[in-house]
From TrEMBL:
Membrane-crossing residue ranges in chain numbering: none
Protein's name according to its UniProt entry: Uracil-DNA glycosylase
CDD domains found in the cross-reference section: UDG-F1-like (cd10027)
InterPro entries: UDG_fam1, Ura-DNA_Glyclase_AS, Uracil-DNA_glycosylase-like, Uracil-DNA_glycosylase-like_sf
EC number(s) reported in the record: 3.2.2.27
Top EC category: hydrolase
Gene3D superfamilies per UniProt: Uracil-DNA glycosylase-like domain
Native source organism of the sequence: Winogradskyella haliclonae
Subcellular location: Cytoplasm
Known catalytic reactions: Hydrolyzes single-stranded DNA or mismatched double-stranded DNA and polynucleotides, releasing free uracil
Function: Excises uracil residues from the DNA which can arise as a result of misincorporation of dUMP residues by DNA polymerase or due to deamination of cytosine.
Residue intervals of the Uracil-DNA glycosylase-like domain: 50-211
Keywords (A to Z) from UniProt: Cytoplasm, DNA damage, DNA repair, Hydrolase
Family named by the database record: Belongs to the uracil-DNA glycosylase (UDG) superfamily. UNG family.
Amino acid sequence: MNVSINQSWKTYLSPEFEKPYFSELVGFVKKEYATNTCYPKGSEIFNAFNHCKFDDLKVVIIGQDPYHGPNQANGLCFSVNDTIAHPPSLINIFKELQMDINMPYPKSGNLMPWADQGVLLLNATLTVRAHEAGSHQRKGWETFTDSVIRVISEHQNDIVFLLWGGFAKKKAKLIDHDKHHILTSGHPSPLSANRGYWFGNKHFSKVNSVLKSLHVEEIDWRIN
């Protein structure tokens, strides 16, 4: 695994790359990609960081695992490549956007335009074996991505964190609540959304209200 990560992040994360756990993680990932089909493509593992530079950061959305179907994952949580059918959670994200800000439902599920505006779409685990959800969990990725959240909390101010679902909400303990803005809700998955824990959270308009109050350019949530 080539740790090809934007220099703006490397400045803060380089100490992690020197730790024993990260060396073991690199070895594991290299072996997995050599012997199995894994996602995302090796060149896209650090896409979340390469499309959202540290100095441009405004918003953090935390996911859990990359999609494990063919051609879905592109290194950004909840995002899929162009022309790929939208997974259920992404459908519900777009439905909430429709209701919240009257955004037309997009054709593409590729969230790259969000990342390019300063939205870090961070999965807790950055790789997965094909058709085996959670197969790369507890191998070191969570240690790394927890460190990412701590670095953001320590070295940035007024970042908006969107914590969707029980897993993401546990990351709140890594964030300085006095320096940052935390919005929580249920997960956009059908199980949570259909129980009333997702729809109506208005997180997208709330994010822009926070950014506007900080005199920071708002996020254009449109995809197409």
